[in-house]
Amino acid sequence: DHPSLATYIRENRTRLVVAGLTVLKAYAIHPEPLMLAPLESFEDWSWRVRDALVWLGEEDPVAAVDYGNDGSDEISVAFTVIATVAAAKVHGGKLEFRTSDLAIWASSNFALREALELAGCTDPVSSSKVSYWLRALKNRIAGGYKLIFNKVHGGREAGKWLLVLAEMDAQT
């Protein structure tokens, strides 16, 4: 309804905040809470904000969530691209790399950078962001590969990540 939503929000911030808090307060003092099944990991938000919106007559925001796409396709592509790049960069046959290696490779390889971004890595050329992304996917199987973390010298040095064929991992 507004040509520039950001401008509208800035100009009406106080009014919008007051309206939002009024809804939350009205729902909080309502004698019969809805108690919809909460969204996993967002229980507080579900019980406070989501239930208040539905009670107000708005569409359930959780109804718009697509549970059919858990990112598996994008992660499969990312693992496959990482394996391809690692095979070209690493000698010795093992698809092993450090977090910093992956960030450096992504800085000069558009396909790798794009695959990592599409798979959820917020900044593929930042070692810390790549590290968060890799840790979130530790032991994940996708694209026929399993992502494994190996400590180096008992954790005294930067660890290495390893992509192994999922079938080979099952045999070991």
- Helix tally equals 8
Radius of gyration: 23 Å
Q: What is the multimeric organization of the chains shown?
A: single chain
Average pLDDT across residues?
Answer: 87
Structural class by sheet pairing and helices: alpha+beta
End-to-end separation: 60 Å
> What is the element string, with H for helices and E for strands?
HHHHEHHHEEEH
Strands side by side in the biggest sheet: 1-4-3-2
Largest sheet: 4 strands, antiparallel
Which percent band covers the strand fraction?
A: 5-15%
> Which parts are unreliable, with pLDDT below 50 for 5 consecutive residues or more?
none
**Which percent range fits the helix content?**
40-55%
Number of strands: 4
Shape: elongated
Provide an overview of this structure.
By secondary structure, the chain is of the alpha+beta class. The chain has eight helices and four strands, in the order ααααβαααβββα. It has a four-stranded antiparallel β-sheet with strand order 1-4-3-2. The N and C termini lie far apart (60 Å). The mean pLDDT is 87.
Present the secondary structure layout.
Elements: H1 5-11, H2 13-28, H3 43-55, H4 72-89, E1 95-97, H5 99-108, H6 110-118, H7 127-136, E2 141-142, E3 145-152, E4 157-165, H8 166-171
Antiparallel strand pairs: 1-4, 2-3, 3-4
Helix pairs in contact: 2-3, 4-6, 5-6, 5-7
Summary keywords:
elongated, 8 helices, 4-stranded antiparallel beta sheet, 172 residues, 13% strand, alpha+beta, 4 strands, single chain
